[in-house]
Amino acid sequence: SRSKLRMRSSGSARTMRSDVPGATCTVEPDSFMDSSRNVRSPDAGLRLQCSQVSAPFRVRAAKRMRSERPGRSSQIPRTARPSSRAVRVLARAASSSESYRIAFDTPSMCAYLRRNVKGHNRLPVVLERRAPVMSLHGPKTKRITVRDLLESKQRGEKIVALTAYDFTFARIVDESGVDLVLVGDSVGQVIAGHESTLPVTIEDMIYHGRAVRRAVKRAFVVVDMPFLSFQITPEETLRNAGRIMKETGAEAVKLEGGDDHAAVHVKALVRAGIPVVGHLGLTPQSVHVLGGFRVQGRGSADADRLREDARRLEDAGACAVVLELVPAALAGEITRSLTIPTIGIGAGPDCDGQVLVLYDMLGLNPSFTPRFLRRFAMLDEASRKGIAEYAAAVRDGTYPAAEHSFE
Fold it and tell me: How far apart are CA 107 and CA 154, in angstroms?
């Protein structure tokens, strides 16, 4: 191989760095390269992580960049891509019998490697995106659009969605690489403390939508249409959705239901140029009609209704559909039947993406324990500990100290 790779040890891991900036492979546990510079490891549990450590390769199609070989240049395609050397390193890794998990900064890098790393479909190689670290004051970042969501479904790439209701958390969510930020009417329960989403108003959604949009620089922002803002006439629905779009800067609105009446409203919005995300299964605004927060679509009649509603929403022009509390098999069937992406919450792993309420997945609401929820952090405990330490420091006089005071 002509690839010039350097390896350095770091504990039980070693890092191979390509001559080209931005291509780094970290191999864990201890591994080595043989005389042919192939990656070898005796451990079947090997985990290979590849990430971009320099600025992302974002260049225009017409821009010329210097090739890896001195004195030559190459045309860079519109899609960002890693260096060919990084691809060759991964190809060697994929040629072994080990199981790898490979993470990258951008979806385009995953797509590029899927096309260029031979054997990734036959071997246990998982290509996934690593959340990029972005700065609000750094270079401009391309916003995710409806087209990007549709292309993610076509490529088989999962869409990551989370709720957000304020500037601070929205900034963290966006900078962590989430694709879709939902300003949900769940704000009524999570922030305002209501028992349901029914008391939430248009003004509430606009206020929180504005705060989220000011923070989000990359993700696709969707704002919920609250109860009775879209159930009366198409004209009123259009007026309310127009207010949300104009006053928040969101990319789409979300509304619940998929019957004939809802389809008429979706068509009116799409015709006016407003992207719409549908919502089927458990629709929280209809909680009293449904008899509580229960799984929907278990019976054959209910399952048929959900299938029909999903097709109706797609025909009406919806750009995506949220499936909430739907049996996994049914959600997978609906997902495969649609050309638009499905975003699941309590709907199994076969949806095109997943969404959770941010406060729930961060462990800020420990009393809420539905089966579908996985907590990825326990901020309730961490927050209580930090507040208790602050209170103790104030009471015993150790805060503020000299370093926290001005002369």
Answer: 13
Residue 205 in contact with residue 165, Cβ under 8 Å? no
Closest CA to 275 of 181, 164, 146: 146
CB 72 within 8 A of CB 124: no
DSSP state of 239: H
Q: What is the pLDDT of residues 200-249, one digit of tens each?
A: 999 999 999 999 999 999 999 999 999 999 999 999 999 999 999 999 99
Query: Residue 275, preceding bond cis, omega within 30 degrees?
Result: no
Residue 88 pLDDT class (50, 70, 90 cuts): low
Note the pLDDT tens digit of each residue in 390-404.
999 999 999 999 999
Alpha helices in 249-397 (DSSP H): 260-271, 287-290, 300-316, 328-337, 358-361, 379-395
Q: Which of 152, 54, 32, 50 is nearest to 101 (CA)?
A: 50
Q: Give CA separation, 170 vs 177, 181, 216, 359, 386, in Å.
A: 11, 8, 6, 12, 22
Return the beta strands (E) in 192-236 as ranges.
220-224
Q: Is 320 helix (H, G, I), strand (E, B) or coil?
A: strand
What is d(CA 328, CA 334) in angstroms, rounded to the nearest whole number? 10
Of the candidates 236, 241, 239, 212, the residue with the CA atom closest to the CA atom of residue 224:
241
CA-to-CA distance for 32 and 141, rounded, in angstroms?
37
Residue 104 has pLDDT above 90, yes or no: no
Nearest CA-CA partner of 140 in 58, 207, 83, 200: 58
What is the DSSP-derived secondary structure letter of residue 198?
A: T
- Cα–Cα distance measured from residue 321 to residue 159, given in angstroms and rounded to the nearest whole number: 12
Neighbours of 348 (CB within 10 A): 17
Query: Nearest-5° angle of CA 145, CA 151, CA 152?
Result: 90
Task: Average the pLDDT over 73-87 and give the result.
Answer: 44
pTM over 0.70: no
Distance between CA 44 and CA 182 in Å, rounded? Answer: 40
Sequence-distant (≥ 6) Cβ neighbours of residue 269 within 8 angstroms? 237, 238, 241, 253, 276
- The CA-atom distances, in angstroms, between 242 and each of 33, 125, 141, 235, 285 are 59, 45, 26, 10, 21
Which residues are marked as active site? Answer: 324
Residue type, 65: M
Question: 2 or 249: which carries more pLDDT confidence?
Answer: 249
Pairwise CA distance, residues 380 & 400, whole Å? 25
Instruction: Please say whether the beta carbons of 276 and 220 come within 8 A.
Output: no
